[in-house]
């Protein structure tokens, strides 16, 4: 996108001086605050992290036509958080909730956080495929660590007769609700979304099953404790990202998962586990989501190829660069050549 009459690219208009530490009140409205030592520290740390991200070509390796279709889909979404992808938006902010510095604090504003989950495997960092690694059952593991001092190894969301995706949503509803009535109403709404009707009786039964599955942490259900855990997971995320930013290695947060160059496949799970242990003194398991495999962009080699084979390779490369022309054009903004 270019502005008419001016040779200005949207990538050149980076909002590098806007506030990165955001405080919202209980109504989710942004509120003013006076800096204290920890807000200054968080801002300084985030500046270091953002400097690495801003200097790095981070992109989505999909054909131009597919990107156009995806953006149309995002613009039609009823989700207010969904919007057309702006690849220049890679400057993270931390958002704290309820006017408190120990609630929320997660990292937002990266364009990669706005795309459908199935597209994250297509993210490239400097034209290299990526991996995504996440903590398994992070918030349940945190609760058990804090309440019992033990490692939680089970599937926190598995309930007999309940779809796991629904069960996970219900767990999070219980963790973030203020009361039993609001929790049951929210669970009933989820049931309605999957065609089971706004059945509060069934919602109450499933809620009871979740309580029965987690007797050691159920006292924290329906107490809005989730925002406390968000603050803790944001501190873990900051620790991990700072570790890599000191080595100028870009890492993309998606709350309880992280995306990096595929070369960190063996190292990153250990870094995540060590960070969790540092804050909670117990271990946690991680899982790896492999990025989509595509051969890295390169020129054809003379080695071992006939003339016809080389011509076919050149044709394939030219076709790929036509289909992905906008992708490579964005790379040129970071002085990436091919």
List the helices and strands and how they pair.
Elements: E1 21-23, H1 37-54, E2 58-60, H2 64-76, E3 93-96, E4 104-108, E5 123-125, E6 128-135, H3 138-148, H4 164-176, H5 180-193, H6 200-213, H7 226-245, E7 252-253, E8 257-261, H8 267-280, E9 286-290, H9 307-323, H10 325-332
Helix pairs in contact: 1-7, 3-7, 4-5, 5-6, 7-8
From the structure above, extract its key features:
disordered N terminus; alpha+beta; three-stranded mixed beta sheet; globular; single chain
Q: In words, what does this structure look like?
A:
- Helices cover 42% and strands 11% of the residues.
- The protein has 338 residues and is α+β, with helices and mostly antiparallel strands.
- Strand 7 and strand 8 (257-261) form a beta hairpin.
- The longest helix has 20 residues, at 226-245.
Summarize the structure.
The protein has about 350 residues and is α+β, with helices and mostly antiparallel strands. It has helices spanning about 35-55, 65-75, 140-150, 165-175, 180-195, 200-215, 225-245, 265-280, 305-325, 325-330, and strands spanning about 20-25, 60, 95, 105-110, 125, 130-135, 250-255, 255-260, 285-290.
Secondary-structure element pattern, one letter each: EHEHEEEEHHHHHEEHEHH
Proportion of residues in β-strands:
5-15%
Ranges where pLDDT stays below 50 over 5 or more residues in a row are 1-13
Residues in helices, as a percent range? 40-55%
Count helical runs.
10
Task: Tell me, briefly, the overall form.
Answer: globular
- Per DSSP E runs of 2 or more residues, the count of β-strands stands at 9
Mean pLDDT: 90
Question: How does the helix and strand content classify structurally?
Answer: alpha+beta
From the N-terminal CA to the C-terminal CA, the straight-line distance is: 22 Å
The largest β sheet comes out as: 6 strands, antiparallel
């Amino acid at each position: 996108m270019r502005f008419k009459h001016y040779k200005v690219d949207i990538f050149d208009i980076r909002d590098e001086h806007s506030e990165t530490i955001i405080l919202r009140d209980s109504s989710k409205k942004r509120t003013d605050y006076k800096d204290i030592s920890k807000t200054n520290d968080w801002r300084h740390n985030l500046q270091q992290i953002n400097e690495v991200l801003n200097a790095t070509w981070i992109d989505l390796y999909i054909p131009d036509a597919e990107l156009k279709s995806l953006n149309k889909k995002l613009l039609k979404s009823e989700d207010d958080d969904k919007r057309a992808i702006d690849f220049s938006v890679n400057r993270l902010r931390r958002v704290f909730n309820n006017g408190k510095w120990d609630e929320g604090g997660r990292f937002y504003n990266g364009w990669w956080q706005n795309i459908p989950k199935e597209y994250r495997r297509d993210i490239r960092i400097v034209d290299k495929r990526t991996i995504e690694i996440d903590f398994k059952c992070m918030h349940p593991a945190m609760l058990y660590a804090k309440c019992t001092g033990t490692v939680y190894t089970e599937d926190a969301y598995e309930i007999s007769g309940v779809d796991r995706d629904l069960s996970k949503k219900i767990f999070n509803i219980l963790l973030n609700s203020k009361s039993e009535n609001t929790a049951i109403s929210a669970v009933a709404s989820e049931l309605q979304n999957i065609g089971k009707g706004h059945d509060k009786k069934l919602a109450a039964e499933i809620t009871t099953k979740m309580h029965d599955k987690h007797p050691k942490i159920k006292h924290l259900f329906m107490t809005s404790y989730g925002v406390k855990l968000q603050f803790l997971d944001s501190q873990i995320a900051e620790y991990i990202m700072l570790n890599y930013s000191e080595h100028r290695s870009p890492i993309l947060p998606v709350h309880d998962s992280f995306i990096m160059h595929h070369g960190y496949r063996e190292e990153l799970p250990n870094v995540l586990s060590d960070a969790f242990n540092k804050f909670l003194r117990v271990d946690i398991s991680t899982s790896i989501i492999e990025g989509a495999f595509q051969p890295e962009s390169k020129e054809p080699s003379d080695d071992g190829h006939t003339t016809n084979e080389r011509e076919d390779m050149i044709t394939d490369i030219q076709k790929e660069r036509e289909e992905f022309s906008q992708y490579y054009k964005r790379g040129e903004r970071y002085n990436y050549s091919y």
